[in-house]
Amino acid sequence: MFGGLSGWHLIILFVVVVVVVVVVIVVTASASNRRRTAQPQGGVGPDGYPLSTRTNTMAILSLIFAFFISLLAVVFGHVALAQIRRTGEQGRGLAVAGLVLGYLSIAAAVIGVIIWIVMFTQLAHYGSAYGG
């Protein structure tokens, strides 16, 4: 079906496709958010309040959690983007970085589990073939 590709080649192909899809989604979302959330002139945010120079706390936490607990990084990143859009706070780049790292970590974990399952089933199959 895949022109003689072995299991490892398919896994590597899958990883590359996932990374490309994630990058395309992030770049597309980033470009559309920049157009949609352009800040008005005069230092006033979209809700009429003055623009803040504070950095959003959820964005900072998203980037920090990206290195420890990826699921929390994704949750905090989405919450941060919504808050930044609403309040005009700084930290959009931190939130996007936390989201990208969080999603990549989750994808790597899923791929790792798939590789482990494939290796375990192959070991069980070949082990039973030799009487083990």
UniProtKB/TrEMBL annotation:
The keyword Ribonucleoprotein does not apply. Signal peptide: none annotated. The keyword Chloroplast does not apply. Pfam families: DUF4190 (PF13828). Keywords: Membrane, Transmembrane, Transmembrane helix. The chain crosses the membrane at residues 7-31, 59-82, 94-119. This is DUF4190 domain-containing protein.
